[in-house]
Amino acid sequence: MKSRSEILEIAADREFDLVVIGxxxxxxxxxxxAASRGLSVLLLEKDDFASGTSSRTTKLIHGGLRYLEQLQFxxxxxxxxxxxxxxxxxxxxxxxxxxxLPITRGKKFFGIKxxxxxTLYDLLSINARGVRTHERLNRKATLGxxxxxxxxxxxxxxxxxxxxxxxxxxxxEVIKSASLYGAxxxxxxxxxxxxxxxxxxxxxxxxxxxxxDGKEIIVRCRSCVNAAGVWSDKLLRQLDSNWxxxxxxxxxxxxxxxxxxxxxxxxxxxxxxxxxxVFVVPWQKALMVGTTxxxxxxxxxxxxxxxxxxxxxxxxxxSYSKAGGLPGSAKQLTRSDVIAAWAGLRPLVGGEHSGxxxxxxxxxxxxxxxxxxxxxxxxxxxxxIGLIGGKLTNYRILSIHVVDMALAQLIKQDAAKYAGFKQSxxxxxxxxxxxxxxxxxxTTAQISAQARKLSLEPATLDHLIATYxxxxxxxxDLVEKSPALAERICPDFPPIMAEVPYCLNxxxxxxxxxxxxxxxxxxxxxxxxxxxxAPKVAMLIQNLNYWDSKRAAVELNIFExxxxxxxxxxxxxxxxxx
Length: 578
Fold this sequence. Notes:
alpha+beta, globular, eight-stranded mixed β-sheet
Protein backbone atom coordinates (compact mmCIF):
# COMPACT_ATOMS: atom_id res chain seq x y z
CA MET A 1 0.00 0.00 0.00
CA LYS A 2 1.14 3.53 -0.74
CA SER A 3 1.46 5.86 2.23
CA ARG A 4 -1.48 8.02 3.22
CA SER A 5 0.31 11.23 2.23
CA GLU A 6 1.15 9.82 -1.21
CA ILE A 7 -2.45 8.83 -1.83
CA LEU A 8 -3.81 12.21 -0.74
CA GLU A 9 -1.44 13.94 -3.15
CA ILE A 10 -2.43 11.67 -6.05
CA ALA A 11 -6.16 11.86 -5.23
CA ALA A 12 -6.20 15.62 -5.67
CA ASP A 13 -4.43 15.43 -9.02
CA ARG A 14 -6.36 12.95 -11.15
CA GLU A 15 -9.77 11.72 -12.21
CA PHE A 16 -10.86 8.22 -11.13
CA ASP A 17 -13.18 5.88 -12.94
CA LEU A 18 -14.74 5.01 -9.60
CA VAL A 19 -14.79 6.59 -6.14
CA VAL A 20 -16.02 4.27 -3.38
CA ILE A 21 -17.23 5.88 -0.14
CA GLY A 22 -17.01 3.50 2.80
CA UNK A 23 -14.09 1.36 3.98
CA UNK A 24 -15.94 -1.66 5.33
CA UNK A 25 -15.93 -5.07 3.69
CA UNK A 26 -18.30 -4.09 0.86
CA UNK A 27 -16.35 -0.95 -0.01
CA UNK A 28 -13.10 -2.91 0.09
CA UNK A 29 -14.63 -5.63 -2.08
CA UNK A 30 -15.87 -3.10 -4.64
CA UNK A 31 -12.40 -1.52 -4.81
CA UNK A 32 -10.78 -4.93 -5.32
CA UNK A 33 -13.24 -6.08 -7.97
CA ALA A 34 -13.15 -2.82 -9.92
CA ALA A 35 -9.36 -2.46 -9.79
CA SER A 36 -8.80 -6.07 -10.82
CA ARG A 37 -10.98 -5.43 -13.89
CA GLY A 38 -8.74 -2.50 -14.83
CA LEU A 39 -10.66 0.51 -13.49
CA SER A 40 -8.95 3.32 -11.61
CA VAL A 41 -10.36 3.37 -8.07
CA LEU A 42 -10.17 5.53 -4.96
CA LEU A 43 -11.66 4.25 -1.69
CA LEU A 44 -12.53 6.83 0.98
CA GLU A 45 -13.25 6.07 4.63
CA LYS A 46 -14.24 8.78 7.13
CA ASP A 47 -12.83 6.85 10.11
CA ASP A 48 -10.54 3.84 10.02
CA PHE A 49 -10.99 0.89 7.69
CA ALA A 50 -13.50 -1.59 9.16
CA SER A 51 -14.17 0.72 12.10
CA GLY A 52 -17.95 0.26 11.79
CA THR A 53 -19.93 -2.92 11.23
CA SER A 54 -17.04 -4.79 9.62
CA SER A 55 -15.03 -5.12 12.84
CA ARG A 56 -18.01 -5.97 15.07
CA THR A 57 -19.50 -9.13 13.57
CA THR A 58 -19.60 -12.64 15.05
CA LYS A 59 -16.46 -13.45 13.00
CA LEU A 60 -18.19 -16.17 11.00
CA ILE A 61 -18.08 -17.10 7.35
CA HIS A 62 -21.24 -19.15 7.26
CA GLY A 63 -24.23 -20.22 5.25
CA GLY A 64 -26.77 -18.60 7.53
CA LEU A 65 -28.46 -21.69 8.94
CA ARG A 66 -31.13 -19.63 10.69
CA TYR A 67 -32.10 -17.98 7.39
CA LEU A 68 -33.69 -21.26 6.37
CA GLU A 69 -36.44 -20.53 8.91
CA GLN A 70 -37.19 -17.43 6.84
CA LEU A 71 -37.23 -19.62 3.70
CA GLN A 72 -34.29 -17.69 2.24
CA PHE A 73 -32.99 -20.64 0.26
CA UNK A 74 -31.28 -18.63 -2.48
CA UNK A 75 -29.38 -16.53 0.06
CA UNK A 76 -28.37 -19.59 2.09
CA UNK A 77 -27.07 -21.41 -0.99
CA UNK A 78 -25.11 -18.35 -2.09
CA UNK A 79 -23.55 -18.04 1.37
CA UNK A 80 -22.66 -21.76 1.48
CA UNK A 81 -20.94 -21.53 -1.89
CA UNK A 82 -19.02 -18.40 -0.90
CA UNK A 83 -17.98 -19.98 2.38
CA UNK A 84 -16.34 -22.81 0.45
CA UNK A 85 -14.66 -20.42 -1.97
CA UNK A 86 -13.26 -18.17 0.77
CA UNK A 87 -11.71 -21.20 2.45
CA UNK A 88 -9.69 -21.62 -0.73
CA UNK A 89 -8.90 -17.94 -1.30
CA UNK A 90 -7.88 -17.18 2.30
CA UNK A 91 -6.71 -20.50 3.81
CA UNK A 92 -4.77 -18.75 6.58
CA UNK A 93 -7.73 -16.80 7.96
CA UNK A 94 -10.96 -18.56 6.90
CA UNK A 95 -10.89 -21.87 8.69
CA UNK A 96 -13.34 -24.71 9.15
CA UNK A 97 -14.81 -24.86 12.62
CA UNK A 98 -17.11 -27.32 14.34
CA UNK A 99 -20.46 -26.02 15.62
CA UNK A 100 -22.88 -27.87 17.85
CA LEU A 101 -26.60 -27.34 18.36
CA PRO A 102 -27.54 -28.88 21.74
CA ILE A 103 -30.94 -30.59 21.92
CA THR A 104 -32.58 -30.23 25.31
CA ARG A 105 -34.90 -32.67 27.04
CA GLY A 106 -38.53 -32.36 26.04
CA LYS A 107 -37.57 -30.76 22.69
CA LYS A 108 -37.71 -33.86 20.50
CA PHE A 109 -39.74 -32.16 17.78
CA PHE A 110 -37.25 -29.28 17.71
CA GLY A 111 -34.45 -31.83 17.32
CA ILE A 112 -36.20 -33.47 14.36
CA LYS A 113 -36.89 -30.08 12.77
CA UNK A 114 -33.27 -29.01 13.26
CA UNK A 115 -31.99 -32.27 11.77
CA UNK A 116 -34.15 -31.73 8.68
CA UNK A 117 -32.91 -28.12 8.46
CA UNK A 118 -29.27 -29.23 8.64
CA THR A 119 -29.90 -31.84 5.96
CA LEU A 120 -31.20 -29.06 3.72
CA TYR A 121 -28.18 -26.96 4.75
CA ASP A 122 -25.94 -29.80 3.54
CA LEU A 123 -27.83 -30.04 0.25
CA LEU A 124 -27.49 -26.31 -0.36
CA SER A 125 -23.74 -26.71 0.15
CA ILE A 126 -23.43 -29.29 -2.65
CA ASN A 127 -20.63 -28.34 -5.05
CA ALA A 128 -19.12 -26.02 -2.43
CA ARG A 129 -15.44 -26.66 -1.79
CA GLY A 130 -14.62 -28.44 1.44
CA VAL A 131 -18.23 -29.27 2.27
CA ARG A 132 -18.75 -31.36 5.43
CA THR A 133 -22.11 -32.86 6.31
CA HIS A 134 -23.73 -32.65 9.72
CA GLU A 135 -23.99 -35.52 12.16
CA ARG A 136 -26.23 -36.51 15.06
CA LEU A 137 -24.62 -36.77 18.48
CA ASN A 138 -25.87 -38.74 21.43
CA ARG A 139 -25.98 -37.27 24.91
CA LYS A 140 -22.53 -38.57 25.89
CA ALA A 141 -20.83 -37.17 22.78
CA THR A 142 -22.59 -33.82 23.19
CA LEU A 143 -21.47 -33.44 26.79
CA GLY A 144 -17.99 -34.66 25.87
CA UNK A 145 -17.67 -31.86 23.32
CA UNK A 146 -18.98 -29.22 25.72
CA UNK A 147 -18.52 -30.41 29.31
CA UNK A 148 -19.94 -27.20 30.78
CA UNK A 149 -23.39 -27.95 29.38
CA UNK A 150 -25.87 -29.01 32.06
CA UNK A 151 -26.21 -32.85 31.89
CA UNK A 152 -29.71 -32.62 33.36
CA UNK A 153 -30.77 -30.46 30.44
CA UNK A 154 -29.16 -32.15 27.44
CA UNK A 155 -30.55 -35.11 25.51
CA UNK A 156 -28.26 -34.95 22.47
CA UNK A 157 -26.95 -32.63 19.82
CA UNK A 158 -26.28 -31.95 16.17
CA UNK A 159 -22.82 -31.12 14.88
CA UNK A 160 -22.33 -29.10 11.70
CA UNK A 161 -19.54 -27.08 10.11
CA UNK A 162 -19.07 -23.44 9.19
CA UNK A 163 -15.96 -21.23 9.15
CA UNK A 164 -14.47 -18.76 11.58
CA UNK A 165 -12.38 -15.75 10.62
CA UNK A 166 -11.31 -12.25 11.67
CA UNK A 167 -13.61 -9.67 10.08
CA UNK A 168 -11.45 -6.53 10.19
CA UNK A 169 -8.43 -8.51 8.98
CA UNK A 170 -10.43 -9.69 5.96
CA UNK A 171 -11.16 -6.05 5.15
CA UNK A 172 -7.47 -5.19 5.38
CA GLU A 173 -6.46 -8.11 3.17
CA VAL A 174 -9.05 -7.18 0.54
CA ILE A 175 -7.79 -3.58 0.58
CA LYS A 176 -4.20 -4.80 0.20
CA SER A 177 -5.30 -6.98 -2.73
CA ALA A 178 -7.08 -4.01 -4.33
CA SER A 179 -3.92 -1.95 -3.90
CA LEU A 180 -1.88 -4.53 -5.78
CA TYR A 181 -4.20 -3.93 -8.75
CA GLY A 182 -3.73 -0.18 -8.54
CA ALA A 183 -6.61 0.90 -6.28
CA UNK A 184 -5.92 3.59 -3.71
CA UNK A 185 -7.50 3.49 -0.27
CA UNK A 186 -7.29 6.20 2.36
CA UNK A 187 -8.76 6.42 5.86
CA UNK A 188 -9.90 9.46 7.85
CA UNK A 189 -10.96 11.24 4.64
CA UNK A 190 -14.63 12.24 4.82
CA UNK A 191 -16.90 13.00 1.87
CA UNK A 192 -18.64 16.24 2.86
CA UNK A 193 -20.15 17.49 -0.41
CA UNK A 194 -20.67 16.67 -4.09
CA UNK A 195 -20.74 18.44 -7.41
CA UNK A 196 -22.79 17.25 -10.38
CA UNK A 197 -22.64 17.78 -14.13
CA UNK A 198 -25.27 19.84 -15.88
CA UNK A 199 -25.29 17.51 -18.90
CA UNK A 200 -26.44 14.30 -17.27
CA UNK A 201 -26.88 15.27 -13.61
CA UNK A 202 -24.30 12.80 -12.32
CA UNK A 203 -21.80 13.27 -9.51
CA UNK A 204 -18.42 14.16 -11.00
CA UNK A 205 -16.68 15.60 -7.93
CA UNK A 206 -16.50 14.52 -4.29
CA UNK A 207 -15.37 17.22 -1.88
CA UNK A 208 -13.52 15.66 1.03
CA UNK A 209 -12.14 16.81 4.36
CA UNK A 210 -8.98 15.37 5.86
CA UNK A 211 -9.99 14.70 9.46
CA UNK A 212 -6.41 15.18 10.68
CA ASP A 213 -5.50 18.58 9.34
CA GLY A 214 -8.91 19.83 8.20
CA LYS A 215 -7.73 20.44 4.64
CA GLU A 216 -10.16 20.18 1.75
CA ILE A 217 -9.38 17.72 -1.02
CA ILE A 218 -11.35 17.71 -4.27
CA VAL A 219 -11.64 14.31 -5.95
CA ARG A 220 -12.88 13.94 -9.52
CA CYS A 221 -14.66 10.79 -10.68
CA ARG A 222 -16.82 9.31 -13.42
CA SER A 223 -18.89 7.08 -11.16
CA CYS A 224 -19.51 7.05 -7.41
CA VAL A 225 -20.48 4.22 -5.02
CA ASN A 226 -22.05 4.67 -1.60
CA ALA A 227 -20.84 1.74 0.52
CA ALA A 228 -21.24 3.59 3.81
CA GLY A 229 -23.41 0.93 5.48
CA VAL A 230 -25.50 2.34 8.30
CA TRP A 231 -24.36 5.84 7.29
CA SER A 232 -25.72 5.44 3.73
CA ASP A 233 -28.86 7.51 4.25
CA LYS A 234 -26.93 10.30 5.96
CA LEU A 235 -24.56 10.45 3.00
CA LEU A 236 -27.34 10.53 0.42
CA ARG A 237 -29.17 13.32 2.26
CA GLN A 238 -26.16 15.49 1.40
CA LEU A 239 -27.26 15.04 -2.22
CA ASP A 240 -31.03 15.12 -1.68
CA SER A 241 -32.48 16.64 1.48
CA ASN A 242 -35.74 14.77 0.81
CA TRP A 243 -34.04 11.38 0.62
CA UNK A 244 -36.21 8.64 2.13
CA UNK A 245 -34.32 6.33 4.50
CA UNK A 246 -33.59 2.83 3.28
CA UNK A 247 -31.46 1.58 6.18
CA UNK A 248 -32.90 0.04 9.34
CA UNK A 249 -29.99 -0.28 11.80
CA UNK A 250 -30.01 -3.36 14.02
CA UNK A 251 -27.78 -3.45 17.07
CA UNK A 252 -25.77 -6.56 17.86
CA UNK A 253 -23.85 -6.86 21.13
CA UNK A 254 -21.11 -9.39 21.93
CA UNK A 255 -19.24 -10.15 25.12
CA UNK A 256 -15.94 -11.92 25.67
CA UNK A 257 -15.22 -14.35 28.51
CA UNK A 258 -12.09 -16.27 29.53
CA UNK A 259 -12.03 -19.77 28.04
CA UNK A 260 -12.08 -21.15 31.59
CA UNK A 261 -15.58 -19.74 32.16
CA UNK A 262 -17.27 -22.31 29.95
CA UNK A 263 -15.53 -25.47 28.80
CA UNK A 264 -16.21 -26.38 25.18
CA UNK A 265 -14.10 -27.75 22.33
CA UNK A 266 -16.62 -26.63 19.74
CA UNK A 267 -18.61 -23.52 18.93
CA UNK A 268 -22.19 -23.67 20.21
CA UNK A 269 -25.39 -22.57 18.51
CA UNK A 270 -27.84 -22.03 21.37
CA UNK A 271 -31.60 -21.59 20.78
CA UNK A 272 -33.09 -18.86 22.95
CA UNK A 273 -36.57 -18.54 24.50
CA UNK A 274 -37.33 -15.58 22.22
CA UNK A 275 -36.85 -17.66 19.08
CA UNK A 276 -33.32 -16.57 18.22
CA UNK A 277 -29.90 -18.22 18.48
CA VAL A 278 -26.80 -17.16 20.40
CA PHE A 279 -23.34 -18.22 19.29
CA VAL A 280 -20.66 -19.25 21.78
CA VAL A 281 -17.39 -19.26 19.84
CA PRO A 282 -13.79 -19.82 20.95
CA TRP A 283 -11.94 -16.94 19.25
CA GLN A 284 -8.57 -15.30 19.84
CA LYS A 285 -7.87 -17.40 22.96
CA ALA A 286 -11.13 -16.27 24.59
CA LEU A 287 -14.83 -17.10 24.35
CA MET A 288 -17.09 -14.85 22.28
CA VAL A 289 -20.82 -14.85 23.09
CA GLY A 290 -23.32 -13.07 20.85
CA THR A 291 -25.27 -11.59 19.45
CA THR A 292 -28.34 -9.55 20.27
CA UNK A 293 -30.54 -8.35 17.41
CA UNK A 294 -32.59 -5.30 18.30
CA UNK A 295 -33.85 -2.15 16.62
CA UNK A 296 -31.54 0.82 17.10
CA UNK A 297 -32.28 4.53 16.88
CA UNK A 298 -29.31 6.15 18.64
CA UNK A 299 -26.09 7.68 17.35
CA UNK A 300 -24.49 5.70 14.53
CA UNK A 301 -20.98 6.46 15.78
CA UNK A 302 -19.43 4.22 18.43
CA UNK A 303 -22.45 2.31 19.78
CA UNK A 304 -21.85 0.53 23.08
CA UNK A 305 -23.43 -2.41 24.84
CA UNK A 306 -26.01 -1.89 27.53
CA UNK A 307 -26.19 -3.65 30.88
CA UNK A 308 -29.45 -5.31 29.77
CA UNK A 309 -27.80 -6.73 26.64
CA UNK A 310 -24.83 -8.05 28.60
CA UNK A 311 -27.16 -9.66 31.15
CA UNK A 312 -29.24 -11.19 28.34
CA UNK A 313 -26.19 -12.94 26.83
CA UNK A 314 -24.94 -14.09 30.23
CA UNK A 315 -28.43 -15.35 31.05
CA UNK A 316 -28.61 -17.46 27.87
CA UNK A 317 -25.24 -19.04 28.57
CA UNK A 318 -26.13 -19.65 32.24
CA SER A 319 -29.39 -21.31 31.22
CA TYR A 320 -27.43 -24.00 29.35
CA SER A 321 -24.59 -24.45 31.83
CA LYS A 322 -24.20 -26.50 34.94
CA ALA A 323 -24.69 -23.19 36.70
CA GLY A 324 -28.29 -23.34 35.60
CA GLY A 325 -28.90 -26.57 37.52
CA LEU A 326 -29.14 -27.12 41.25
CA PRO A 327 -28.03 -24.22 43.49
CA GLY A 328 -24.33 -24.49 44.21
CA SER A 329 -23.68 -26.93 41.35
CA ALA A 330 -21.46 -24.41 39.53
CA LYS A 331 -20.65 -20.73 39.52
CA GLN A 332 -23.14 -18.51 37.73
CA LEU A 333 -21.45 -16.26 35.20
CA THR A 334 -21.80 -12.60 36.09
CA ARG A 335 -20.70 -9.29 34.64
CA SER A 336 -17.45 -9.56 36.59
CA ASP A 337 -16.46 -12.45 34.30
CA VAL A 338 -16.74 -10.30 31.17
CA ILE A 339 -13.34 -9.24 29.82
CA ALA A 340 -14.60 -7.29 26.80
CA ALA A 341 -17.85 -6.10 25.28
CA TRP A 342 -18.69 -4.38 22.05
CA ALA A 343 -21.69 -3.42 19.98
CA GLY A 344 -22.11 -3.04 16.24
CA LEU A 345 -24.84 -1.92 13.87
CA ARG A 346 -26.05 -4.01 10.96
CA PRO A 347 -27.33 -2.01 7.96
CA LEU A 348 -30.52 -3.98 7.33
CA VAL A 349 -32.82 -3.10 4.46
CA GLY A 350 -35.75 -1.03 5.71
CA GLY A 351 -37.47 2.30 5.07
CA GLU A 352 -39.73 3.30 2.23
CA HIS A 353 -37.68 2.06 -0.77
CA SER A 354 -39.07 4.71 -3.07
CA GLY A 355 -37.43 5.41 -6.39
CA UNK A 356 -34.40 3.96 -8.12
CA UNK A 357 -33.63 0.48 -9.36
CA UNK A 358 -33.98 -1.87 -6.39
CA UNK A 359 -33.00 -5.46 -5.80
CA UNK A 360 -33.83 -7.60 -2.79
CA UNK A 361 -35.97 -5.10 -0.88
CA UNK A 362 -37.22 -6.23 2.51
CA UNK A 363 -40.98 -6.54 2.84
CA UNK A 364 -41.11 -7.26 6.57
CA UNK A 365 -41.55 -4.20 8.80
CA UNK A 366 -41.27 -6.21 12.03
CA UNK A 367 -38.40 -6.49 14.51
CA UNK A 368 -34.83 -6.80 13.29
CA UNK A 369 -34.48 -10.50 14.12
CA UNK A 370 -36.99 -11.31 11.39
CA UNK A 371 -35.91 -8.73 8.80
CA UNK A 372 -34.51 -10.26 5.64
CA UNK A 373 -30.72 -10.37 5.28
CA UNK A 374 -31.10 -9.88 1.53
CA UNK A 375 -29.43 -6.80 0.09
CA UNK A 376 -30.70 -3.75 -1.73
CA UNK A 377 -28.82 -2.46 -4.79
CA UNK A 378 -30.04 0.82 -6.24
CA UNK A 379 -29.11 3.93 -8.17
CA UNK A 380 -29.69 6.90 -5.94
CA UNK A 381 -29.65 10.66 -6.45
CA UNK A 382 -27.39 11.94 -9.23
CA UNK A 383 -26.36 8.44 -10.25
CA UNK A 384 -24.69 7.45 -6.97
CA ILE A 385 -24.83 3.66 -6.70
CA GLY A 386 -25.89 2.34 -3.30
CA LEU A 387 -25.79 -1.05 -1.65
CA ILE A 388 -27.40 -1.83 1.69
CA GLY A 389 -27.45 -5.09 3.60
CA GLY A 390 -25.64 -8.32 2.85
CA LYS A 391 -23.24 -10.36 4.94
CA LEU A 392 -19.51 -10.61 5.55
CA THR A 393 -19.67 -13.98 3.82
CA ASN A 394 -21.05 -12.75 0.49
CA TYR A 395 -19.20 -9.43 0.25
CA ARG A 396 -17.52 -10.63 -2.97
CA ILE A 397 -20.82 -11.34 -4.74
CA LEU A 398 -22.26 -8.01 -3.61
CA SER A 399 -19.17 -6.24 -4.91
CA ILE A 400 -19.60 -7.84 -8.34
CA HIS A 401 -23.19 -6.53 -8.53
CA VAL A 402 -22.04 -3.02 -7.63
CA VAL A 403 -19.17 -2.95 -10.12
CA ASP A 404 -21.44 -4.32 -12.86
CA MET A 405 -23.81 -1.39 -12.26
CA ALA A 406 -20.92 1.09 -12.21
CA LEU A 407 -19.61 -0.32 -15.49
CA ALA A 408 -23.04 0.09 -17.06
CA GLN A 409 -22.85 3.78 -16.14
CA LEU A 410 -19.31 4.11 -17.49
CA ILE A 411 -20.16 2.36 -20.76
CA LYS A 412 -22.95 4.88 -21.34
CA GLN A 413 -20.37 7.64 -20.93
CA ASP A 414 -17.66 6.05 -23.12
CA ALA A 415 -18.48 2.67 -24.64
CA ALA A 416 -15.19 2.39 -26.51
CA LYS A 417 -13.14 2.84 -23.34
CA TYR A 418 -15.09 0.69 -20.89
CA ALA A 419 -16.72 -2.11 -22.89
CA GLY A 420 -13.81 -4.48 -22.22
CA PHE A 421 -13.97 -4.39 -18.39
CA LYS A 422 -16.86 -6.78 -17.94
CA GLN A 423 -15.65 -9.93 -16.20
CA SER A 424 -14.96 -10.17 -12.49
CA UNK A 425 -11.96 -12.28 -11.53
CA UNK A 426 -12.08 -12.10 -7.72
CA UNK A 427 -13.07 -15.76 -7.49
CA UNK A 428 -9.46 -16.54 -8.42
CA UNK A 429 -7.62 -13.87 -6.40
CA UNK A 430 -6.17 -15.20 -3.16
CA UNK A 431 -6.06 -13.04 -0.05
CA UNK A 432 -3.08 -12.83 2.27
CA UNK A 433 -0.45 -12.32 -0.41
CA UNK A 434 -0.38 -15.94 -1.56
CA UNK A 435 -0.13 -16.53 -5.31
CA UNK A 436 -1.72 -20.00 -5.04
CA UNK A 437 -2.21 -22.93 -2.66
CA UNK A 438 1.34 -24.17 -3.27
CA UNK A 439 2.73 -20.76 -2.31
CA UNK A 440 0.61 -20.84 0.85
CA UNK A 441 2.00 -24.22 1.90
CA UNK A 442 5.61 -23.40 1.00
CA THR A 443 5.67 -19.97 2.60
CA THR A 444 3.91 -21.00 5.82
CA ALA A 445 6.59 -23.68 6.22
CA GLN A 446 9.24 -20.99 5.73
CA ILE A 447 7.53 -18.70 8.25
CA SER A 448 7.34 -21.54 10.77
CA ALA A 449 11.05 -22.35 10.36
CA GLN A 450 12.07 -18.72 10.88
CA ALA A 451 9.82 -18.39 13.91
CA ARG A 452 11.31 -21.49 15.53
CA LYS A 453 14.84 -20.12 15.05
CA LEU A 454 13.77 -17.00 16.92
CA SER A 455 12.06 -19.09 19.63
CA LEU A 456 8.67 -17.50 19.00
CA GLU A 457 5.85 -19.24 20.82
CA PRO A 458 3.66 -21.60 18.72
CA ALA A 459 0.57 -19.54 19.63
CA THR A 460 2.28 -16.38 18.37
CA LEU A 461 3.31 -18.11 15.15
CA ASP A 462 -0.27 -19.26 14.50
CA HIS A 463 -1.53 -15.77 15.27
CA LEU A 464 0.92 -14.07 12.89
CA ILE A 465 0.06 -16.34 9.97
CA ALA A 466 -3.70 -16.08 10.57
CA THR A 467 -3.48 -12.30 10.90
CA TYR A 468 -0.97 -11.23 8.24
CA UNK A 469 -0.70 -14.13 5.81
CA UNK A 470 2.49 -13.94 3.79
CA UNK A 471 3.35 -10.62 5.44
CA UNK A 472 4.02 -12.53 8.67
CA UNK A 473 7.54 -12.80 7.20
CA UNK A 474 7.90 -9.03 7.54
CA UNK A 475 6.81 -9.12 11.19
CA UNK A 476 9.29 -11.90 11.92
CA ASP A 477 12.04 -9.93 10.17
CA LEU A 478 11.39 -7.09 12.63
CA VAL A 479 11.86 -9.51 15.53
CA GLU A 480 15.11 -10.76 13.99
CA LYS A 481 16.42 -7.18 13.80
CA SER A 482 15.16 -6.28 17.27
CA PRO A 483 14.54 -9.33 19.53
CA ALA A 484 12.87 -7.16 22.18
CA LEU A 485 9.90 -6.84 19.81
CA ALA A 486 9.06 -10.50 20.49
CA GLU A 487 7.49 -9.39 23.80
CA ARG A 488 3.77 -10.02 24.09
CA ILE A 489 1.59 -6.91 24.05
CA CYS A 490 -0.80 -8.39 26.63
CA PRO A 491 0.34 -11.17 28.98
CA ASP A 492 -2.37 -13.73 28.18
CA PHE A 493 -2.62 -13.33 24.40
CA PRO A 494 -0.21 -14.10 21.52
CA PRO A 495 0.18 -10.73 19.66
CA ILE A 496 3.68 -9.26 19.97
CA MET A 497 5.18 -5.77 19.88
CA ALA A 498 6.71 -6.25 16.40
CA GLU A 499 3.21 -6.00 14.94
CA VAL A 500 2.99 -2.35 15.97
CA PRO A 501 5.70 -0.99 13.62
CA TYR A 502 4.52 -3.35 10.90
CA CYS A 503 0.97 -1.95 11.03
CA LEU A 504 2.24 1.63 11.12
CA ASN A 505 4.48 1.09 8.10
CA UNK A 506 2.29 -1.16 5.96
CA UNK A 507 -1.39 -0.90 6.91
CA UNK A 508 -2.08 2.83 7.32
CA UNK A 509 -2.71 2.47 11.05
CA UNK A 510 -2.75 5.95 12.55
CA UNK A 511 -4.31 5.88 16.02
CA UNK A 512 -3.82 3.63 19.02
CA UNK A 513 -7.32 2.29 18.46
CA UNK A 514 -6.47 1.46 14.82
CA UNK A 515 -3.56 -0.65 16.01
CA UNK A 516 -4.91 -2.35 19.13
CA UNK A 517 -8.56 -2.80 18.13
CA UNK A 518 -8.61 -3.40 14.37
CA UNK A 519 -5.14 -4.39 13.08
CA UNK A 520 -4.48 -6.36 16.28
CA UNK A 521 -7.73 -7.42 17.94
CA UNK A 522 -6.80 -7.02 21.60
CA UNK A 523 -9.25 -4.17 22.13
CA UNK A 524 -12.03 -6.60 21.25
CA UNK A 525 -10.65 -9.53 23.25
CA UNK A 526 -9.55 -8.25 26.68
CA UNK A 527 -10.18 -4.56 27.25
CA UNK A 528 -8.65 -4.49 30.73
CA UNK A 529 -5.31 -6.00 29.68
CA UNK A 530 -5.34 -3.86 26.56
CA UNK A 531 -5.68 -0.72 28.68
CA UNK A 532 -2.79 -1.81 30.89
CA UNK A 533 -0.58 -2.44 27.84
CA ALA A 534 -1.49 0.68 25.88
CA PRO A 535 1.18 2.93 27.50
CA LYS A 536 4.05 0.69 26.44
CA VAL A 537 2.65 0.52 22.90
CA ALA A 538 2.39 4.32 22.80
CA MET A 539 5.95 4.59 24.10
CA LEU A 540 7.20 2.27 21.35
CA ILE A 541 5.46 4.40 18.70
CA GLN A 542 6.99 7.51 20.24
CA ASN A 543 10.46 5.90 20.24
CA LEU A 544 9.97 5.07 16.55
CA ASN A 545 9.41 8.82 15.97
CA TYR A 546 5.85 8.50 14.75
CA TRP A 547 4.49 10.55 17.67
CA ASP A 548 5.83 13.11 20.06
CA SER A 549 4.99 12.98 23.77
CA LYS A 550 1.98 15.28 23.36
CA ARG A 551 0.45 13.13 20.60
CA ALA A 552 1.09 9.97 22.64
CA ALA A 553 -0.72 11.45 25.64
CA VAL A 554 -3.71 12.43 23.49
CA GLU A 555 -3.88 8.97 21.92
CA LEU A 556 -3.76 7.26 25.31
CA ASN A 557 -6.53 9.47 26.63
CA ILE A 558 -8.81 8.80 23.65
CA PHE A 559 -8.10 5.08 23.75
CA GLU A 560 -8.79 4.84 27.49
CA UNK A 561 -12.12 6.63 27.12
CA UNK A 562 -13.14 4.30 24.29
CA UNK A 563 -12.19 1.11 26.14
CA UNK A 564 -13.91 2.21 29.35
CA UNK A 565 -17.07 3.15 27.46
CA UNK A 566 -17.19 -0.28 25.81
CA UNK A 567 -16.57 -2.23 29.01
CA UNK A 568 -18.48 -0.09 31.52
CA UNK A 569 -21.91 -1.72 30.94
CA UNK A 570 -20.39 -5.16 31.53
CA UNK A 571 -18.33 -4.69 34.65
CA UNK A 572 -16.60 -1.84 36.48
CA UNK A 573 -12.85 -1.81 35.93
CA UNK A 574 -10.47 -1.95 38.87
CA UNK A 575 -9.25 1.43 40.05
CA UNK A 576 -5.75 0.68 38.69
CA UNK A 577 -7.15 0.80 35.14
CA UNK A 578 -9.01 4.07 35.52
